[in-house]
Amino acid sequence: MPKQKTIAATGNVLVAEAMRQCAPDMMAAYPITPQTTIVEEFAKFVANGRVHTEYVTVESEHSAMSACIGASAAGARVMTATSSQGLAYMWEELHIASGMRLPIVMANANRALSAPINIHCDHSDIMGARDTGWVILFAETAQEAYDNTIMSVRIAEHPDVLLPVMTTLDGFITTHSIDRAEVMDDETVSAFVGQYVPENALLDPERNVTHGAFAGLGGPYFEFKHSQRLAIERSRDVVKSVGAEWSEISGRPFGMVETFGMEDAEVAIVVIGSTAGNARHVARGLRAQGMKVGVVKVRCFRPFPYAELVQALSGVKAVAVLDRAESFGAEGGPLYLEVRSALYDLATRIPAVDYIYGLGGSDVKTELIERVFNDLADIAAGTAEPAGLVYLGAR
Amino acid sequence: MQQQLTEIRWHARAGQGAVTAAKLVAETALELDRYIQAMPEYGPERMGAPIQAFTRISEDPIEIHNNIEHPSVVVVLDESLLPIVDVTSGLAPGGVIIVNTCSAPAVLRSVLGVADDAVVASVDASTISQDTLKRDMPNTPMIGALAKLTGIFTLEQVSDHLAKTFGKKFSQEVIDANVAAVTRAYEEVQAS
Asked: CB–CB of A277 and B35 under 8 A?
C-alpha cells in the first residue's frame, strides 16, 4: 500500500526529494537562482549517502548538459536542473539531447531572461526551449512539481518515447514558497519508476553503437528528425497513461489539460503554471456571483494537447490566453499561438484575446484576472471587440 | 473561502528571524490540518535591511500565489521600521497589527494612525527575548503574541511545535527558553 505523508516544503525541496526517490545514476548541475536549492538539497542527499548518484560539479550549464548527454548515452539514468540564463546557455546541448534520444530529466525553475537583469518568474526561458524536441511539463503548485518530476522519468524512459523531459515550476512563486504537499514513500516511487534499461548504451561491449554521428550529405538527418516527430507524437499517449497510473497511486488527478467550471462556462481563461491557481480563485468568486466563467490549465506544453483544448473550449463565446512570455513580432505569446491554432479546427470561430502578464515576476493581482474575465464577458455579450494583444497591468 | 483565509505580513530587519517565524506559524497550522503558504519577499538580502515575509493559512486549499496586499494580520518585529516602512499598508478592515515595542497600545495607535476598527497590540518582545533567550531575537515571542490575538492556534500548540521542530537541532535548554519566550509574550501582549 502506498504511504504518503503531509509536509510543509518549498517546490524546490519537493523536486529534490522526487529526484532522490527516482535515484538517478548521475547528476551534473550548475547552480543558478532560483534553481539553486534543488541541486543544493540533492548534493546533501548524495553527501549523506541517502542516494547513490554520481554527482558531477561542472563549471557551467553548457558543461552540465554536455556531461548529462555523455552519461545518458553511456546508459545511465540522468537528471539535472537549471533556470533562465542557464537554460539559454544549454541551448545547443538541448537539441543534442533530444536528437540523440536521451531520456534525461531536467527541472527548470521558470525565470525571466536578461536584459534588463531580472531573477523573478516568467516563462521566457522555457518557451525559448519549446522547439528543442523535449517533452515539457508545467506545474501549478509544489505538489504538481513533485508529481511531474516522478512522472517525467517514466515518460522519458518509455521505449515508445526515449526523449528528454523538462519538468518546470515557477521561479520563487513555486520554487521558494513553502506549501502543503503529500510525499510518497520511497518504495512506491522506486517501484513506479522501475529500473532504467537502456536500449542503446554506449558502454555495452556486446553491442557497439554510435550516437550523434555525421548524417549530412544525403545521410539520414531528415529521417532522424521525422523519427523525433513520431516519438513526441507517441509521447501523448504515454504522458496520459503514466499520469493516469500515478494518479491512481497518489490519489491526485492528472490531465494534459485540467479544467474548472468548463461544464457551463461562457468565457474562459487558458493559462499555464502557478497563475492557473489565481485564475481559478477569481473564477470561483465570479461564479458565486452568477458569472459563467471557466479556467483551462495546460499542464503539458510539449506535446501540445490540441484535442483536449478544443474539447474544453468548444462551448465558449470568448477565450483569453494568459502568456507569461513574449514571441516578439508574432501575433501573440507562445501559448496564444498554440491556442489559436487549436481553435482553427472548430466550425465556429471563437474570439480570442492574448494577455501578456507577469513578465519578470510582475505580480498577478486578483483584480487583473477579474479584468480579463470582465473583458471576455463584454466580448461574449457583443458590447466590445477583442482587443488583440494586451499587456495586462503594464504601467 | 475568502473569510477562512488568514493572511499575515511580517515586517523585520534581515537577521531577526521573520522568515523563520513565517515558516513556524505555517508549520504549526499544518499540524492542525490547515492549508498553508509561507514565503519571504524575494530580493537582495543584507543584514539589518528592512524585509517582509508572508504566511497564508486556510481551512481549504490555497489557490492564489500573488503577493499579500490586504493582510488581516501585520507583525512588526522591529519598532525602528515604523518611520521608514508603511507597515499598515493595505491592512484589511478589522485587521490586527502587533508591534514589538515597550510603548502602550494607545500610544502605538496614534503613531500608526490606523482605522478605529483595527486592533493595535504591543508586546516588548525584545526584552522578553533578552530575559529568556539571552539575546534580542524577537521572532518566537511574536508568535506567542500572534496566537493570543488571532486564535489561529493555542499557546500549547505553538509550544508543542517548537519543541518538536527545535528538538532536532537544539538543546533542551534552548527549547525551554523559546517556549518561555512564547509563553511570556502570550501573557504580556496588550491590545487596544
From this structure: no
Nearest to B165 by CA among B153, B178, B148: B178
Choose the closest CB to A178 out of B23, B42, B67: B23
Phi, psi of B17 (to 5 degrees): 90, 20
Point out the residue among A172, A178, A361 whose CB comes nearest to the CB of B38: A178
- Distance from C-alpha of B70 to C-alpha of B92, rounded to nearest angstrom: 5
Inter-chain touch B26–A277, beta carbons under 8 Å: no
Domain A257-391 of CATH type 3.30.1780.10: no
Cβ <8 Å between B66 and A172 = no
φ/ψ bin of A109: left (φ > 0), alpha (ψ from -120 to 50), beta (otherwise): beta
Amino acid symbol at B7: E
What topology is assigned to B2-191 in CATH?
Answer: Pyruvate-ferredoxin Oxidoreductase; domain 3 (3.40.920)
Classify the complex by whether its ipTM is higher than 0.90, answering yes or no: yes
Residue B37: list chain A partners with CB under 8 A.
177-179
pLDDT digits (tens, 9 = 90+) for A180-213: 999 999 999 999 999 999 989 998 889 999 999 9
For chain B, how are helix, strand and coil distributed in percent, rounded to 5? 40, 20, 40
Identity of the residue in B1, B27, B63 whose CB atom sits nearest the CB atom of A277? B63
Q: Does A180 contact B65 at a Cβ distance shorter than 8 Å?
A: no
Q: Are the Cβ atoms of A178 and B64 closer than 8 angstroms?
A: no
The domain locations on chain B are: 2-191
Q: Where are the domains of chain A?
A: 4-250, 257-391
| Residue whose C-alpha is closest to residue A135's, from A106, A171, A170, A175 | A106
Interface check B60 vs A, CB under 8 A: no
Amino acid at A355: Y
**According to DSSP H, which parts of chain B are helical?**
18-31, 105-112, 125-133, 139-150, 155-166, 172-188
- Return the CATH number of the domain spanning residue range A4-250: 3.40.50.970
Task: Give all strands of the β-sheet with B73-76 in edge-to-edge order.
Answer: A4-10, A178-184, B35-40, B50-58, B6-13, B73-76, B96-100, B119-123, B190-191
| Segment A208-222, tens digit of pLDDT | 999 999 998 888 999
| Beta carbons of B97 and B121 less than 8 angstroms apart | yes
A4-250 with A257-391: one CATH topology?
yes
Q: At what angle do helices A11-22 and A186-193 cross, to 10 degrees?
A: 60
List the single residue in A with minimal CA-CA distance to B40. A177
- Best mutation target, A122, A180, A287, A371, to test chain B (most B CBs within 10 A): A180
> What whole-number percentage of chain A has pLDDT above 90?
96
A360: DSSP letter: G
Contact yes or no for B37/B62 (Cβ under 8 A): yes
Cα distance between residue A361 and residue A173, in whole Å: 9
CA-nearest of A332, A323, A320 to A364 is A323
Q: Where does residue B163 rank: exposed (0-12), middle (13-18), buried (19+ CB within 10 A)?
A: middle
What is the helix, strand, coil percentage profile of chain A, to 5? 40, 20, 40
Q: What is the pLDDT of residues A331-343, one digit of tens each?
A: 999 999 999 999 9
Residue A372's pLDDT is 98
Chain B residues in contact with A275 (beta carbon < 8 A): 65
